[in-house]
């Protein structure tokens, strides 16, 4: 399955919540969801009046979560299977796995304007984890590990621009950042109360448990 390359704002309007796919734009009145808070399409207003089946609700939440983190279907299913194997609540385990992705941690720390940009920067090798270069966006960062911008990448325009505008976002409580050193640290694994993603994760579990 190919990665989606169409308009990001269209996905937010379809989901009905901000997925923060467009970086700084999502925090301004220019956000498409602020201006047109209804699904895209000629007959979108008619569709709003239709009753959605339980399956439809489950599918919509799964797609919302998958698109928010920029994960393809096959990989997303693997995350679910891993979350199911781990002790605890499957839905919370799934969210924790997605939050621990290196591209997400880079985005949460403010080193990138969006998860999409973070994924690209990580793939290009601009970050190190515990002083070791990592270019795999899906790398799962562990508690206690430090994520830093490489010395040679600190003047990179996308990173400099993202740091200048990172003040619009609240730093997650499970992370710590040293702005001067361009280094962040994972203090602990995130709990559900520390994850601000707007999703009914239990519906995702129901979707895969059919």
Uncertain stretches: none
Structural class: alpha+beta
Percent range for helical residues?
Answer: 40-55%
Quaternary assembly: single chain
Describe the protein's architecture and organization.
The longest helix has 16 residues, at 54-69. A hairpin with a 2-residue loop joins strand 1 (127-129) and strand 2. The chain has helices spanning 8-15, 32-35, 44-48, 54-69, 73-85, 90-99, 102-108, 115-123, 157-164, 201-208, and strands spanning 127-129, 132-133, 146-149, 175-178, 183-186. Strands 2-1-3-5-4 form a five-stranded antiparallel β-sheet, covered by helices on one side. Helix 4 packs across helix 10, helix 6 (90-99) crosses helix 10 (201-208) and helix 7 packs across helix 8. The relative contact order is 0.14. The model has no long low-confidence stretch (mean pLDDT 84). It is globular, with a radius of gyration of 18 Å. The protein is built from ten helices and five strands, in the order ααααααααβββαββα. The protein is an alpha+beta fold and 210 residues long.
């Amino acid at each position: 399955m190919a990665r989606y390359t169409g308009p990001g704002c269209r996905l937010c309007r379809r989901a009905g919540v901000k997925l923060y796919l467009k970086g700084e734009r999502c925090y301004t009145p220019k956000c498409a969801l602020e201006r047109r808070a209804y699904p895209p399409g000629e007959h979108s207003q008619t569709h709003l009046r239709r009753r959605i089946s339980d399956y439809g609700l489950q599918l919509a939440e799964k797609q919302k979560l998958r698109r928010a983190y920029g994960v393809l279907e096959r990989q997303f299913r693997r995350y679910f299977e891993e979350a199911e194997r781990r002790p605890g609540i499957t839905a919370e385990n799934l969210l924790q796995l997605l939050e621990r992705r290196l591209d997400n941690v880079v985005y949460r720390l403010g080193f990138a304007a969006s998860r999409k940009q973070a994924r690209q920067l990580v793939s290009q090798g601009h970050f190190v984890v515990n002083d070791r270069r990592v270019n795999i966006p899906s790398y799962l960062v562990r508690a206690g590990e430090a994520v830093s911008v490489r010395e040679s990448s600190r003047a990179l325009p996308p990173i400099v621009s993202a740091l200048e505008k990172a003040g619009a976002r609240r730093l997650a409580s499970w992370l710590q950042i040293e702005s001067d050193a361009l280094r962040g640290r994972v203090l602990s694994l995130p709990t559900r109360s520390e994850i601000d993603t707007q999703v009914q994760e239990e519906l995702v579990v129901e979707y895969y448990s059919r």
